[in-house]
Design brief:
Elements lengths: L1 E8 L3 H14 L5 E8 L4 H4 L1 H6 L5 E6 L7 H14 L8 E6 L2 E2 L4 H14 L3 E7 L28 E5 H6 L18 H11 L3 E12 L9
Length: 224
């Protein structure tokens, strides 16, 4: 029912380990599948991360990408993860959450999942994002900040974590296996480009104020 696409880059072992531990603790594992895309790592711990987790979490899969630019960057992993989750036999995926390695969830994620599942069942053209925890000196993306949030911000949802009903992804896709524009936006602005297309078909971006998640902005994506 609930699919999760996680992407990490390079040798951020402690970051992705914390991300996964919190994710596994916070989601309904009996109804979930998680796929981790690992872009260009040389770290032995990251290379062996599946073995570290699989003994406790059979719902977990990993995919290693040796050349992230050739693979469509960060956005390429989003598209491939969606396709993977939609094609798992006997797994009726209704909701997909995409997040990066520097996003540390908690039990509040249930509000995203519940809202997206309701939208999927009603075939509402919506997608969902949280508020993010505030920290001293924060000066960007304040429309999703827990202290500066304003209702109905008319903004895209930040791609550090967002949750989609399957119907919204399908209705807004560019081609048979391209949901986000990996050609035009492989490393950035992928969330904005998707949102702008979604608006044109009557879609809505919904912030769930009850869901407050920590995003630490440990961005390491690079282009060659």
């Amino acid at each position: 029912m609930y699919g999760f696409v996680v992407t990490t880059h390079f040798n951020n072992y402690e970051t992705i380990k914390k991300c996964l531990n919190l994710l596994f603790e916070s989601i309904p594992l009996d109804k979930s599948k998680i796929v981790l895309y690992i872009n260009e790592t040389t770290c032995p711990n990251v290379l062996n991360i599946k073995e570290e987790f699989i003994k406790n979490y059979s719902q977990f899969e990993t995919v290693y990408i040796h050349d992230q630019t050739k693979n469509g960057g960060l956005t390429g992993t989003w598209n491939q993860g969606i396709d993977y989750l939609l094609n798992i036999p006997y797994f009726n995926c209704k909701v997909i959450t995409i997040l990066g390695h520097d996003t540390y969830v908690n039990n509040d994620i249930k509000y995203l999942l519940e809202s997206a599942l309701e939208a999927e069942n009603n075939k509402d053209l919506k997608y969902f994002g949280p508020l993010f925890k505030n920290y001293p000196g924060k000066c960007e993306e304040l429309w999703q900040d827990e202290l500066h949030y304003m209702n109905n911000p008319d903004k895209f949802l930040i791609g550090s974590i967002f949750t989609f009903p399957i119907n919204s992804l399908i209705e807004n896709k560019l081609s048979i296996n391209m949901y986000f524009n990996s050609k035009k936006c492989p490393f950035g602005y992928n969330d904005i480009e998707w949102y702008n297309r979604f608006l044109k078909i009557g879609g809505k971006a919904i912030i769930i104020p009850k869901c407050i998640i920590n995003h630490e902005y440990k961005r390491t994506w690079i282009t060659k």
